[in-house]
Amino acid sequence: QVSLVESGGGLVQAGGSLRLSCAASGRITSGYAMGWFRQAPGKEREFVATITWNGGRTYYADSVKGRFTISRDSAKNTVYLQMNSLKPEDTAVYYCAARYGGLGYKEVHYNNWGQGTQVTVSS
Q1: N or C of the chain: less Cβ packing under 10 Å?
Q2: Residue 65 three-state SS
């Protein structure tokens, strides 16, 4: 079983930056992939970015490509989401997720989830 804890959310003005962290504990091995998802009020949870735990392959949603960067520090068992040029439409609860396998871009691909961290971007 994998436990995930997100941090780093907060309130930021449009155009600003935030870095989210996801600390993982449990049996994270090189065969895992990690993902970030987000859910805005009244909307379904949507994919943001994913990364493989060992090779660092990444994949992004079109809406964040060029603005967000996902990375991982295997020694610290932590995944990051650097968010730049934030827009009000990025406001959401951001969730970290883990799966055993390759890159995943759908909720159903993941069976381990964190509790979420709120990101609010003011205009």
Answers
A1: N
A2: coil
Q: Give residue 115's identity as a one-letter amino acid code.
A: Q
pLDDT digits (tens, 9 = 90+) for 63-106: 999 999 999 998 899 999 999 999 999 999 999 999 998 899 99
Tokens found for residue 30: 């090189």
Question: Which of these, 14, 5, 26, lies nearest to 83 by C-alpha position?
Answer: 14
Q: How far apart are CA 84 and CA 53, in angstroms?
A: 23
- Is the distance from CB of 55 to CB of 41 less than 8 angstroms? no
Integer Cα distance of 85 and 100 in angstroms? 31
- Which candidate, 36, 37, 45, 35, places its Cα nearest to that of 102? 35
Distance CA 64, CA 49 (A): 8
Q: What DSSP state is assigned to residue 2?
A: E
User: What is the mean predicted confidence (pLDDT) over 11-26?
Assistant: 96
Strands (E), the chain: 2-7, 10-13, 18-26, 32-39, 46-52, 58-60, 68-73, 78-83, 92-100, 112-113, 117-122
